[in-house]
Design goal:
Layout (H helix, E strand, L loop, with lengths): L3 E5 L6 H9 L3 E6 L6 E9 L2 E7 L11 H15 L2 E7 L6 H10 L6 E6 L22 E2 L8 H10 L2
Parallel strand pairs: 1-4, 1-5, 5-6, 6-7
Antiparallel strand pairs: 2-3, 3-4
The structure holds guanosine-5'-diphosphate and magnesium ion.
Protein name: GTPase Der
Subunit structure: Associates with the 50S ribosomal subunit.
Organism: Paenibacillus hodogayensis
Length: 163
């Protein structure tokens, strides 16, 4: 079986955009288990000969409990349980938020590698946006731009190095 990489982060940071960048058209399985209140969307990613499954955890829906915090907790739990490596995504344009810190709190407990990706670093001028995220404590943040296709190779390199 392929190793599993989960993309985790608060809504709107760009998880689905990056997920689509990584998988291209290799959407593998859409598993909708009856009785289980989450849909899982898997894609296949590949970098330098290493192939892995990717989960866009933002696709998780919780019946009757759609508050952001609950949904974020659910995502993080799933990632901690099932992933071999976690991409923790934040938004460099918006800056560090309380919800990012909530996600971070949960990921500290994961005995899994966490790769911190700062999305929406759309050009060189925005590169300084990554520095405040060092305080999250996951090492060097990787600046990326899903919409401009910047830094995806660096991100995937960090991911497969940690698998
Ligand atoms: P998700 O909720 O985390 O899955 O985020 P989405 O992938 O749906 O993206 C949320 C919004 O951010 C959308 O309007 C995207 O077009 C936008 N977005 C995603 N990536 C980037 C990026 O690299 N730069 C900018 N400026 N916007 C982005
Ligand atoms: Mg999404």
């Amino acid at each position: 079986a392929r190793p599993i990489v989960a993309i985790v982060g608060r809504p709107n940071v760009g998880k689905s955009t990056i997920f689509n960048r990584i998988i291209g058209d290799r959407l593998a399985i859409v598993e909708d288990k009856p009785g289980v209140t989450r849909d899982r969307i898997y894609g296949i990613g590949e970098w330098m000969g290493t192939s892995f499954s990717v989960i866009d955890t933002g696709g998780i829906e919780i019946d009757g409990a759609d508050e952001m915090l609950k949904s974020i907790r659910m995502q993080a739990e799933l990632a901690i349980e099932e992933a071999d490596a976690i991409v923790f995504m934040v938004d460099g344009k918006a800056g560090l938020t309380g919800s990012d810190s909530e996600v971070a709190q949960m990921l500290y407990r994961a005995k899994k590698p966490v790769i911190l990706a700062v999305n929406k670093v759309d050009n060189l001028k925005r590169q300084d946006d990554i520095y405040e995220f060092y305080t999250l404590g996951f090492g060097d943040p990787i600046g990326i731009s899903g919409s401009h296709g910047i830094g995806i190779g660096d991100l995937l390199e960090a991911v497969v190095t940690n698998l």
